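This part of the workshop introduces the protein records we will be handling. An example says more than a description, so a record of this kind follows:
>
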Amino acid sequence: MFEDFLFRAFIAGIGLAIITGPLGCFIVWRRLSYFGDTLAHSALLGVVVGYALNFNFIISVFVISALISLSLLYLQKRTSLPNDALLGLLAHSVLSIGLVLLGILSFIRIDLMGLLFGDILAVNMNDILIVWAGGGISLLVLIYIWRPLFAGTVNLELAKAEGLNADTANTIFTLLIALVIAISIKIVGILLITGLLIIPAAASRNLSNHPIQMAIISSVLGVLSVIFGLLTSINWNTSTGPTILSAALGIFIISLFPWKKLPLFKKEIKLEK
């Protein structure tokens, strides 16, 4: 039987993988991978603010990430700068401010390695509760806004013509990403959470023929990445966060094989034609 700390790590990692799957699909569809990096960079500032104010850093990370995401939406409407320029501006500015504050507030002692790369083996029951509660709320909200969000992803003007509030769904979606980043810091760290969002979703795109199917497969591949990554980390004594992402990369490479040509997928392909 697994040790208690390893069992908790599996439960926390699986809970996070379930919600990062469908969220990651929208990030891939909308080409927002750099947006995830931007919010992940803002997490450092959130952690510093949380420790400085003697506040729960998960809440402070969510608040800071949410403010950054709302600022991005505001700047997109108020300036003529392209999205990648705005994302670069916000990402590096917020990261720099976080590092400056960390240097000024010398009384703050933060495990930077754990913050950057996560330490899933150190999670406790409170962390598991936060991951599953936050992930469950995120998943329910995503299901609720799925139709307008997906319609806006395909064609924003058409979604508005059909009376769907795609702008509101997009705002809620950015807040969901901020929430997932906040609850994932202890598991994979602020540098690697974007990988857990993108890699399983990218792999599932090679294995699916339908958006909902892609979201489900993405969650399954994320869970497999966590399981294989943790087992490999324990056996080879490697860092858990990077090992989980390495396992996800291995699954992505396997997904490049033309699986859709196998008999299992032929029926689905015929239906598409």
User: Anything to note?
Assistant: The longest helix spans residues 125-154. The domain at 4-190 is CATH 1.10.3470.10 (ABC transporter involved in vitamin B12 uptake, BtuC). The chain has a mean pLDDT of 88. The radius of gyration is 19 Å.
